[in-house]
Amino acid sequence: MGKELLDKLNEAISSEMQASIQYMWQHVMWAGTKGAAVKDDFKKIAITEMKHAEAIAERLYYLGGTPTTEPAPIKLSKKLEDMVKDNVKAEEEAISMYKEIIRLAEKEGDITTKFLFESILSDEEDHHDYFTTLLEE
Predict the structure, then answer these.
(1) CA–CA distance, 88 with 52 (Å, rounded to integer)
(2) Which residues contact 121 (CB under 8 A, 6 or more apart)?
(3) How many CA atoms lie within 13 A of 20 on its CB side?
(4) What is the pLDDT of residues 12-68, one digit of tens each?
(5) pLDDT digits (tens, 9 = 90+) for 65-84
(6) Which of 19, 30, 69, 77 has CB 3.0 to 4.6 Å from 35, enough for a Cys bridge?
């Protein structure tokens, strides 16, 4: 498998770990009436992101790579609106990266990685939709 694809898979793991930690922290930090309405959703999304990291790590290891244990930088905003804006940006970056990984996997004939990331991409688009909807309020 090409080094570029393996490196991108590690970048994806790092991104998924970052999102999982960031969203779980936000779940803990949300307070008040607005927080009560969405905090459980943040926890569910955080768990989904960790499952993504695990699936990508398993794929990377199968392909001969060594999965990273370092998350990307975590944003810990204090204001609820800033948290959601940080999340929208994180999801946009993930969507862009995963489309690139799908293209790379396709180019290398790796249909399993392509299929994995098509599935994860669908989840990320759902998360992006959820967070952007919260900003419409």
Answers:
(1) 18
(2) 95, 98, 99, 102
(3) 16
(4) 999 999 999 999 999 988 877 777 778 899 999 999 999 999 999 999 999 999 999
(5) 999 999 999 998 988 889 99
(6) 30
List Cα–Cα distances, 117 to 34, 82, 98, 104, 111, in angstroms: 33, 28, 6, 11, 10
Q: Which amino acid is at 109?
A: G
Beta carbons of 39 and 33 less than 8 angstroms apart: no
Q: What is the rounded CA–CA span in Å between residue 28 and residue 41?
A: 12
Can you list the pairs that 63-70 forms with residues at least 24 positions away whose Cβ atoms lie under 8 Å? Answer: 63/1, 63/5, 63/6, 63/9, 63/110, 63/113, 64/1, 64/6, 65/1, 65/6, 65/9, 65/10, 67/10, 67/13, 68/10, 68/13, 68/14, 70/14, 70/17
Tell me the two tokens of residue 108: 């290398």
Cα–Cα distance, 70 to 53 (Å, whole number) = 11
